[in-house]
Amino acid sequence: MNFQFLANGMVAGAxxxxxxxxxxxxxxxLRFSNFAHGELISWGAYATLVIAxxxxxLAPSLALSFGPFSFGPALVLAAVIGMALTGGLALIxxxxxxxxxxxxxxxxxxxxASFGASMALRALxxxxxxxxxxxxxxxxxxxxxxxxxxxxxxxxxxxxxxTAILVLALHLLLTYTQIGRAMRAVSExxxxxxxxxxxxxxxxxxxxxxxxxxxxxxxxxxxxxxQIRPFMGFDLLLPLFAASILGGIGSVPGAxxxxxxxxxxxxxxxxxxxxxxxxxxxxxxxxxxxLLKPTGLFGSQSR
Length: 303
Known about the structure:
The chain is mainly alpha-helical. The chain has one domain: ABC transporter involved in vitamin B12 uptake, BtuC, CATH 1.10.3470. Helix content is about 75%, strand content about 0%. The mean pLDDT is about 90.
């Protein structure tokens, strides 16, 4: 039996999981579903592409690839800058749109506003870059056999490793730092957190920056293993929400595990059932889990 779908599903699940972390952080702290999060993934990928091109033109030696990988120092540096810029874009969206609506209207209005922001950001990307796919690199990589009929490229190994590092770093941040404890307090009760002297507005800003940065990382990963196009984030939106709900709202490890489950389920559906059932299988799995455990795999009963 060929287990190649497991490797494909894990790579796809890592991208979904990173994006789902931003969704679950936003929902647990701000209490609304941000449907513009998919566009942050797209904007992060394009920002990284543009910056990598600028760095490569100014310092061609930085554009050379690392060993067997298709990317080099230019893309790594560009990704770090892109994560910062995408976090800033998320912060700007909150400042000019979501913050004002949260203070005056019901949460459903904020959700609908995020739909509008999503369409506007996507249309702007199409205007700036057209809908034609672009790539970080057109170099072809040879997949290496690792046993059981599984083949994987060097880029995919690097991306799985990067995902583990980012999720571990975020988990440590939320568990052992002052801002992490403040974020957890706000997610439980913003009112009580404010009474306890926590700067809730600062926590919200940090949440947007972290969510945007992780969205950019997800977009860069998707661009490396597939392609970059304006609709890339929108196409990931439903799997992102499925992963965050499946893992349990507010749980960072849960979002990653949910992403891996969704990714492997979709990859398995393509092999064993048919590509047209890809999304249906992951959402059927989501329904089954929620019927058995409504809070998700790692969600707490208090939510």
